[in-house]
């Protein structure tokens, strides 16, 4: 899935997001909030709609991708819900790009049939998109999932880093196509300062850049001196504004300036905006969960929120969620807000999947203090936990909840294997019978605990999860740093070997064929899955 893969994983996601968004961990939108394997209802384009998407196999790879100047290749699975959702947008983008960027091939690979290609390019989940230049892998695609976004991304990759604008009308036309335009004004399109601007523009994919030597264009962008940069903003529902970089141009100043200015004061949580929210380069968010009336521009709650956004520009993304709307469920579920009284102000740190909640009244002072605590890392994280079960064992597997991580998983006297799963996850369901057999095999090994935890209902600051299932081994001893089980082979044999390799306390397994050794040779060699749900 995606950094959409992010607001999401714990919710049943994630945003993605993923192979799309570095897909990190987030509260997601409903499209991410589903089981890839079982989703037959995701929208799919009619076959004729994707005639401009080239079908690539190992047999024609050299004739298509290898010989192309540029190629965007989607590795997909036919059963994948996220792939089905992407299909019509990818098809539209392919049709537009066929004429707009004729040097670019828009292609797809059924990675369930072309396993060798998936393995060659490190495909770990679906859909995964890769960008190729002159037949060689150049980068992963972490851009938008809508047609316009894909087209814009490819144009940026294949065109000049910045568009040369020689009159104010051309700048106006550029603004009509992009809500944010970064304008550089130079005496000549050469020299050290210009090269710094050009280099930064080439590496920045989510913003349109323009360069000019025209005083009229510079004036329209709010600039009056050479070697200066402005950001021109035309956000929906907002007046046109410009911001000028107040310091000398260098990579650090450009990065900080553009990151701070490219986001609107507040942004609505939606599928359309997910890429902007989760791939903004700002890894912490404020989330205002409240009623539609509170979100009106003249409402006191919204005035307070917008004022705070000005103080923390570039440090926090200020997200709004209409809790009366259809799209609020991912946030409501992820943060446990069912029945909560509006307004609720939340904080979210994506990299650590940490959630925060403001206490007290929704005042300007409280909001500012809470935002500052999230930025500085002093806010107290809110962690979910199910009730501690009376009998924690289920078919020999120890059920962990958030409240028992310290006493069981982090017990220095035990070697603990922990599977963090999601009830909706198809890969977790495939693993379940193998995991039960693993628990049966280790039933009489007192030093080893085979455990599982529902990652959608339980959290702990020492447990980081970036996909389901995540399998972690905590060796006995004072250093409880977990060892991540990696690789697609989740067979009984592979898991047994993983424990044997990393356990600190010596043990002997029952002999094969005994009543506590349930594995057959077939079980041992059969992987539970070869791809994670990201």
UniProtKB/TrEMBL annotation:
PROSITE patterns assigned: THIOREDOXIN_1, THIOREDOXIN_2
Location of this chain's protein in the cell: Endoplasmic reticulum lumen
EC id: 5.3.4.1
Pfam families assigned: Thioredoxin, Thioredoxin_6
Keywords: Disulfide bond, Endoplasmic reticulum, Isomerase, Redox-active center, Repeat, Signal
Catalytic activity: Catalyzes the rearrangement of -S-S- bonds in proteins
First-listed, main subcellular location of the protein, grouped into a coarse class: endoplasmic reticulum
Residues making up the signal peptide according to the UniProt record: 1-23
Gene Ontology, cellular component aspect: endoplasmic reticulum lumen
Domain Thioredoxin, chain residue ranges per copy: 36-159, 382-504
CDD domains associated with the record: PDI_a_family (cd02961), PDI_a_PDI_a'_C (cd02995), PDI_b'_family (cd02982), PDI_b_family (cd02981)
Cystine residue pairs: 80-83, 425-428
Keyword Signal: yes
GO MF: protein disulfide isomerase activity
Keyword Repeat attached: yes
An individual GO BP term: response to endoplasmic reticulum stress
Domain of life, per lineage: Eukaryota
Annotated spans, Disordered: 509-534
Similarity-based family: Belongs to the protein disulfide isomerase family.
NCBIfam families referenced in this protein's UniProt entry, alphabetically: ER_PDI_fam, pdi_dom
Name assigned to this protein: Protein disulfide-isomerase
Taxon lineage: Eukaryota, Viridiplantae, Chlorophyta, core chlorophytes, Chlorophyceae
């Amino acid at each position: 899935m995606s950094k959409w893969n992010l607001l999401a994983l714990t919710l049943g996601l994630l945003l993605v997001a993923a192979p799309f968004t570095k897909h990190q961990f987030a509260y997601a939108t409903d499209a991410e909030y589903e089981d890839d394997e079982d989703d037959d209802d995701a929208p799919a384009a009619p076959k004729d709609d994707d005639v401009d998407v080239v079908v690539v196999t190992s047999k024609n790879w050299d004739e298509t991708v290898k010989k192309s100047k540029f190629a965007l290749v989607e590795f997909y699975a036919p059963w994948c819900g996220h792939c089905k959702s992407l299909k019509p947008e990818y098809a539209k983008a392919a049709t537009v790009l066929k004429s707009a960027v004729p040097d670019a091939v828009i292609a797809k690979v059924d990675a369930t049939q072309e396993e060798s290609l998936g393995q060659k390019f490190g495909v770990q989940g679906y859909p995964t998109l890769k960008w190729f230049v002159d037949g060689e892998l150049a980068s992963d695609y972490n851009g938008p999932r809508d047609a316009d976004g894909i087209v814009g991304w490819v144009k940026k990759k294949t065109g000049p880093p910045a568009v040369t604008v020689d009159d104010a009308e051309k700048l106006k036309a550029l603004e009509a196509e992009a809500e944010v335009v970064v304008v550089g004004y130079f005496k000549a399109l050469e020299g050290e300062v210009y090269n710094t601007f050009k280099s930064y523009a080439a590496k920045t994919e989510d913003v349109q850049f323009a360069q000019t030597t025209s005083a009229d264009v510079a004036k329209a962008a709010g600039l009056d001196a050479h070697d200066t940069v402005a950001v021109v903003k035309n956000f929906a529902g907002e007046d046109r504004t410009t911001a000028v970089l107040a310091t000398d141009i260098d990579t650090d100043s450009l990065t900080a300036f553009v990151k701070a200015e490219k986001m609107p004061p507040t942004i609505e949580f939606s599928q359309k905006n997910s890429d902007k929210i989760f791939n903004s380069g700002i890894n912490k968010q404020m989330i205002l969960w409240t009623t539609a009336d509170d979100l009106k521009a003249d409402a006191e709650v919204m005035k307070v929120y917008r004022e705070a956004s000005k103080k923390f520009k570039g440090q926090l993304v200020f997200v709004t969620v209409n809790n009366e709307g259809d799209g609020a469920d991912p946030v409501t579920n992820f943060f446990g807000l069912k029945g909560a009284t509006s307004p609720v102000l939340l904080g979210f740190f994506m990299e650590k999947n940490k959630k925060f909640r403001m206490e007290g009244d929704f005042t300007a002072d409280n909001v500012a203090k809470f935002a500052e605590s999230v930025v500085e890392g002093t806010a107290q994280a809110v962690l979910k936990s199910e009730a501690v079960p009376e009998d924690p064992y289920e078919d020999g597997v120890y059920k962990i909840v958030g409240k028992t991580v310290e006493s069981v998983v982090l017990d220095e006297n035990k070697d603990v294997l922990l599977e963090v799963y999601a009830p909706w996850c198809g890969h977790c369901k495939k693993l379940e019978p193998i995991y039960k057999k693993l628990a049966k095999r280790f039933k009489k090994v007192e030093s080893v605990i085979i455990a599982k935890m529902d990652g959608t209902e339980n959290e702990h600051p020492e447990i980081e999860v970036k996909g389901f299932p995540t399998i972690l081994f905590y060796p006995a001893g004072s250093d409880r740093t977990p060892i991540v089980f990696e690789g697609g082979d989740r067979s009984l044999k592979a898991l047994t070997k993983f424990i044997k390799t990393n356990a600190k306390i010596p043990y002997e397994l029952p002999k094969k064929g005994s009543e506590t050794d349930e594995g057959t040779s077939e079980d041992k060699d059969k992987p539970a899955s070869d791809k994670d749900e990201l």
